[in-house]
Fold these 3 entries.
Entry 1:
Amino acid sequence: MPEYFSYPQISTVRKNSRPLKSPLNFTLERESSGSKARAAIFQTLHGEVKTPIFMPVGTQATVKGQTVESLKATGARVLLVNTYHLLLRPGPEVLKKFGGIHRFMNWDGPVLTDSGGFQIFSLPHSREINEDGARFQSYVDGKFYLLSPESSIEMQKAIGSDIMMALDQCILSTAPYAQAEAAMDLTHRWAERSLRARGDSPQALFGIVQGACHQDLRKKSAAFLRALPFDGLAIGGLAVGETHLQRYEFTGLVTEQLPQNLPRYLMGVGTPIDILESVHRGVDMFDCIIPSQLAQRGVAFTSHGKLQLRRSVHKFSEEPFDAQCDCQTCKQYSRAYVHHLVKSDEILGWHLLGIHNMAFYYRLIREIRKSILQDDFLSYYEKKRIELVRSDEENPARPPKEAKTSRSARLGDYEIHTAARSFYSIRQVSSGEVMHSVNPPSDEANKLYVEQSFLASRLLKREIQADELVIWDVGLGAAANAMAAVRCFERTYAEKGANGLRHLRLVSFEWDLDPLTLATKNPGCFPHLRHGAPFRILETGKWQHTSNLLQWELLKGDFRSAIESANIPDLIFYDPFSSKADPALWNAETFARIFKHCLPKSAELYTYSASTAVRVSLLTAGFFVAEGIGTGPKSDTTIAFTRATGARNHPLSPRLLGREWLARWRRSGSKFPTTLSNEERPHFEELIETHRQFLSDSFAKSS
Ligand SMILES: [Zn+2]
């Protein structure tokens, strides 16, 4: 008999036939009529838990913006903390020294630890999964770690949680059958290893049902896991890509297959309506970051819908968020005050909203439990499911007009900037310019540079192409564009394998590494940096993909002094600060040097700028200049080609600036660069007027 059966082995796997109580001593109190909703009690090393229960997420051993005291006051009873994050920082040694998380963070209630599987899942390009576990590189210090079923349990023992989770392979819920089946089988083998690794620990251990959105896989997974001596079972792999209806369907399908005498935990779910719907389908436990995440964004849940506290309609309001709420925030503070805090980006606003949102969740959970115990859940459910999907009915939304605010994190001339849409960018303090101000940095990098240049298809080997593709990344900044290219390479590599791919050389130019250093220190704000490569670039100026097919190097210093010595590019992602902040990088002389250096190739330069001055500089430098795609509120960007054929063969058939543009330029107030003397003007004018792009009808017609 395998050594892990220190708990009695269950040989029969018939539904509801589990004969022995788990160490949690799970006791079902009531099942509701006409619904699968249920109320129960179980015991942990740190006290009793009544279900249904909601667990706030304390990612870094803290629920963001809250103290242990404020959390308890809202009704929080069980905390979830993330093994992955605590493994990387502070690390197991610190937790062992403190005898576990409870003393370390001053929390005396039950704690559930996840296994780290989900965080690994969200690092798709910087980890490798095999039978042993997942090898990944730390975003904290760039070191490599192996997260295996055994090392995960070992870490969860060091954390000293009351409930541990077995490591699972989480995949997208929309994954195809074969992939979902392989991940499920691996999860099952890891489940058995996790049980062995638990040994005689008094901490409870839950298994995780996988199988994506495939009914028979979900059933098979539940049947396999309920035959093992777990103390509870979780439904994993939902809330990662499927629709709401699918989520509800599969939740119900899995709970049908789970034993009655074990707690059931739906991981990472959810919104208030998700919780209500899932309780109705027989789930007992939930966790989600939403209450504190929305608090950070200035959103309050109320009995009459969600309030956006940023909106100026609250500026003079003496009302509490919700007259029906008895939380500390509603008792003591007005909407006007919290509106002011949110607008001023004060942490107290986040804290007060967090208290209220958490209290809203716990009130909902208490009402749900009460209605189950009174066998009144079904009518409560019918009423509440309508109430929970309301929006702010007193103040219907108008298109938002929001100011931008900045956070305090700062390095050198740079600081982290929070856009109104709640993503982060880097801002240069002296110029006030924000890198990627309107769209999240990785979105803009993808659209404007990676997708528009068709990088993925250019990486594929074709007969008449050079074996190496060279990209210049001018203005590394916080590496959004470079990482978009790296991820594109990794996706293509995963799909096509090494044989079908060209070699990619990515050359980044940057004179000031403060923006990237600042961003890597705040990886929570910049998901595109959750990868080992940018750390290596900062340390050594070089990074290489394991296949050797991608080499990324940094040329530190002034771009202009490196132009002629760098490998001739095929693609240029031209993204330095604007011509106001850095005029030398946008003048005709610099562009002419780039053009001349690139002439042996048919090269393409992509840039966010669509200004007449920049386009004129590109034209006088010799480039053929076309309109690029719009990104968000920018209706227009620019692509410049060294050869006219480049534009004609481009899959998007971009429109070369034609005679209309020329006519507008002739009338333009900024027709000449300010640096141009009066004597130079006629020559300059002639350069533009006689550019081949405007001479031949065939060029004008490429539009
Ligand atoms: Zn409140």
Entry 2:
Amino acid sequence: MSNQRMRSGGRIIVDSFLQHGVEHVFCVPGESYLDILDALVDVSNKINLVSARQEGGAAYMAESYAKLTGKPGVCLVTRSPGAGNAVIAIHTAYQDASPMVILVGQIKRSFWGRGSFQELDYVPMFSPMTKWVVQVERTEDLPYYMAEAFRVAQEGRPGPVVLSLPEDMLAETSDVGDMSVQSVPRLVPDPGQISQMYDLLAKAERPILYLGGSGWSAQGKRGIEEFAAANQLPVCVAFRRLDVFDHDHPNFAGEMGPAAAPDLVKRVQESDVVLAVGTRLGEHATRGYTLFDAPVPKQKLIHVLQGAQDFGRVFHPTLAIQSDLNAFVAATNTMPKVDVSRRAQSVKEARKAYELNLDPSNSPKGKVDLGQCMLELDKLLTDDAIVTGDAGHYTGWFQRFLKFNGRRRFLGPVSGAMGYGVPAAVMAKIAEPHRMAVGLVGDGGFGMTGNEVSTAIGCNVAPVIIVFNNGMLGSIRAWQELSYPGRVSGTGLINPDYVQLMKAHGGFGVRVERTQDFAPAFRAANEAGKFSVIDLAMDPEAITTRITLTGMREAALKRKAEKAHA
Ligand SMILES: Cc1ncc(C[n+]2csc(CCOP(=O)(O)OP(=O)(O)O)c2C)c(N)n1
Ligand SMILES: [Mg+2]
């Protein structure tokens, strides 16, 4: 006889949450996992169950929690409709390398294969977007699967794990004991590779440090700042990885997403050694894979990644270093000092160009000067604010003009999935109630998950959401103008009156139609102590920080005319 008490599957899972230090669980309830919900009742003083309005919102909350804390985000969803809604965030966790444990309630085992109500096989469904997906058939196996799910989600390149849990398996009992928490090995770089890197960097004339990826610790971020300074390396950050390097640091040269400053793009292209740490050098980090020659860049490429699967996938590395990013930074301390003062000038030039790029005076503007608003916002945000973003062309404005650092965090979908900003801001205020949480979202993005305002109000948390309201799905409209100039199709938006909408929710809403009204509106929203929306009137012409919508259309028409004549 085992000494272990009999526990249901749900209780075993909740005990495993406690073992793994889970503090918040994000869910939309379903009848397929009642036993887990039931077991959570007894630990409500230790685990905060956040019940969102839609699984897309719940799963984004869990994913953004992982980005914020580095710990696995936990999400509970019901079978096919719930799992289907959660896909957007699971795929985001996969692309963005965020550790996540997603538990899906499944139909009873005995109903399998009958085309039963909401029957679906999650293994083929989630295989292409998870590190591991498995259905647990026996209650006594749960301690293993839970411990393994947490380990796999965090090891190497972090990512999502899905467990499918038949409802009768969850309700059955077992006297199985817990499995101990499995430590996640931290891959350290090979010392020989660090000395090879040293040789390459010592000889470099125009090196660039290109940072991205997930899993940076505060210490790792401080360490990479020191490394950049000591080695005279200008630093750029990858698309939506804005907070991996302090923007006020003298080596910071800007962000390298699709809206990057042309001067910085040129600098990266003309570099002779690229030290890419964390970033996969994916499509949006490399201007559609054109930033470097593929597959063999003319630069020496030192590529540092947590997982080996992305080495050489597009760009062949000169030196591939598989390592935990923070362990890599720590290992650079062993490098001997070298005189690289000859590179100081190029660091200064890159910095100067970044600072010049912070001037919005040549940017398109309507009644609201968005560049000016972002500079104002930069002053109004606390140093440890959590800023969340969404997808869309409006993101170009804060990506260019807002500043981040190790403490002022940015959470956004590298995957480009819309609807991220509101749930992530709600999560930020739940996980870190004493920090300022500000969501920057388009009117399209707000339309997708703005319903999570109810979740925030239910949880008594009050993020501030700024809706960049241009009355359109601006990003797609821009693509239409580029490829099919003048032919607008399906990209207009009819929006609600956000001030009235917030009133109906019991929140706070304010509309801003002039630049000078932005700062007072933000202060009012911040002080309202309620879920707040600032409806920021955005001139549809201000589609990017560099060119108007009309400018885009005219350039496209000109290109077409030239092509026709050629
Ligand atoms: C879930 C999802 N659906 C569709 C898209 C395609 N898409 C990318 S940006 C965009 C428009 C975003 O509109 P909005 O939030 O208003 O921002 P804007 O571009 O107008 O600044 C769309 C539809 C996407 N990325 N994600
Ligand atoms: Mg829009």
Entry 3:
Amino acid sequence: MEALGTPPNPLHVAVVGSGPSGFYAAEALLKSGLAVRVDMIERLPAPYGLVRYGVAPDHPKLKEPILLYSAIARLPHFSLLGNVAVGRDVSVEELRAHYHAVVFTCGAQTDRQLGIPGENLSGSHTATEFVAWYNGHPDYRDHSFDLSQEVVVIVGQGNVAADLCRILAKSVDELTTTDIARHALDALAGSKVREIHVIGRRGPAQAKFTNKELKELGELANCDAIVDPRDLELDAASRAEIEAKANFVAAKNVEILRQFAAQAASGKPRRLFFHFLKSPTALAGTDRVEHVVLARNRLDGEPFKQVARETAETEMLRCGLVFRSIGYSGVPIPGVPFDPRRGVFPTQDGRIVDGAGAVMPGLYAAGWIKRGPTGIIGTNRADSVSTVKTLLADVVQLPPIKEPGPDGLRRLLSARGVRTVSVEDWMKIDALEVARGQPAGKPREKFTRVAEMLQCLNVG
Ligand SMILES: Cc1cc2nc3c(=O)[nH]c(=O)nc-3n(C[C@H](O)[C@H](O)[C@H](O)COP(=O)(O)OP(=O)(O)OC[C@H]3O[C@@H](n4cnc5c(N)ncnc54)[C@H](O)[C@@H]3O)c2cc1C
Ligand SMILES: NC(=O)c1ccc[n+]([C@@H]2O[C@H](COP(=O)([O-])OP(=O)(O)OC[C@H]3O[C@@H](n4cnc5c(N)ncnc54)[C@H](OP(=O)(O)O)[C@@H]3O)[C@@H](O)[C@H]2O)c1
């Protein structure tokens, strides 16, 4: 038999997940110089992961990586098997029988928990749910949020929290020509939200916003950003942090927050309040959330290692809607080791390892399921390239397969009645979404149900 990775004996790789890390891994494999066949397996009929279902609709420029991903999808020897969930429609063992290697790029599909009383009261939601709902993710199509409430609390001060603040603070006119899902636009049209409170457990120097996203919150047409100047008095360790050259983002954030604090509220219909050094300790209410109990914190520790410690001082903040935006978490797939504490598949140099640290031959990971839920779209490129480098270094020792990838897997899926979505199928759905958006001046009107997307494939 010819060497693996040569045209008579190509390397068959399954990439699980079609977000940024999946496409960057596929690109690195297909441009490696070896003979490689990539099958990308995606549980939804629509590809692109969080670029489609996470990136905020009012930030269309940040969705432009999709242009690159659609070009990768058209490379020779790339196939998409959309509408196929690993762990539901096909097992990891079955994939291992058909592919020399499996690269998991399945992201972080759920949210972290605060672990406080009342967390699951009606009116308390995760950012994951709200983001996926306004972006038209089919799993969240039928969720509802009580936007008749005037006061909203958002826990967490990262860029996802910033996205939520904008979507809640903007007028419908500002969102109407974006790709926001129609059901969300209709619900937001009736929004009574007047006050948004965004809560950080640490201080202004530790907020995780990037500068551009924070600055934008002070430039909203419909909403005043409000910061209490007393909250910007930094402790010595925080001063040391923002004086460190490499920490320029935090220094700039503090400067932006000082500008917000110096600005007088101009009477816009909505107000966004920044709170620092406060942790929710309980959500309370009779049938639904009516207020959040906040403990005042102090910072403890050396610069860059400061943690929030609760003091005995507490306050009650009345509110009718709470969003917990404290980070995402991966979910396990049977047959793959999982680290529940970090919410990731444990790896060494991109190779998946079991609890004892032993390598699982042929299994790799990249992106959020490998690193955890941090980093912007571009961060995933270097990560996927490094995992693929490891995989290619392993080629000579990869386990043999029973039958080459696509044929065996397609037969198995078809026997199970799974309607797979190919690149050509997706292009058809994509074109219909774009056409549906045109009358309203939207870049697209997404289909928000799996059945609707599959129905498109039976038309014409
Ligand atoms: C709300 C939000 C907004 C963001 N906005 C920006 C932004 O504006 N700019 C920016 O640079 N970064 C942004 N990011 C970060 C960026 O989206 C991530 O860095 C990136 O998407 C992570 O890529 P990934 O491929 O690891 O995961 P994902 O993008 O989550 O892709 C994972 C894919 O795997 C699929 N999948 C999961 N399980 C299975 C399974 N069992 N079988 C088959 N398929 C499966 C999922 O359906 C999904 O398509 C944002 C993140 C969030 C959460
Ligand atoms: N426009 C963009 O570029 C964009 C948009 C959205 C997302 N993203 C990226 O996507 C990634 C994920 O964003 P994210 O906002 O989900 O995560 P994040 O940046 O990690 O922010 C999470 C926030 O939650 C807080 N938090 C965590 N656990 C908490 C707890 N138990 N109690 C109270 N607060 C808690 C964190 O505070 P501590 O610091 O104290 O832990 C932090 O303020 C980031 O890398 C982000 O930059 C980028």
